[in-house]
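Task card 7
Instruction: Convert sequence to structure tokens.
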Amino acid sequence: MMVYPDKDPELEPGPQLRAAERASRAGQQAEQARRQARAAQRSAADSMDHSAISQDRTAKAFEEAAEHSDPHREDYRAYAARHREFAREDRRMAQQLRQIGLS
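Output:
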């Protein structure tokens, strides 16, 4: 241990105090990491909700196209059904992310 002339060696923190300080910092860092992970999960869930809305819009566009197109009507309906399924899956994933973020 280095001794500085302007510092009293008896006032220097001992190994137990330094270990306690490190443990405290580690606890604070862990809590910060948990908060950041929850924020990332909420952000991902919001993105999945936006994706579901987009999939619903796409499905609606295909449904409208099916109404006006005889030769491709069934194809458009099938596309619409696939996009509705994508929207349901996006909403399910968003819900799962939110549930994980609460635990």
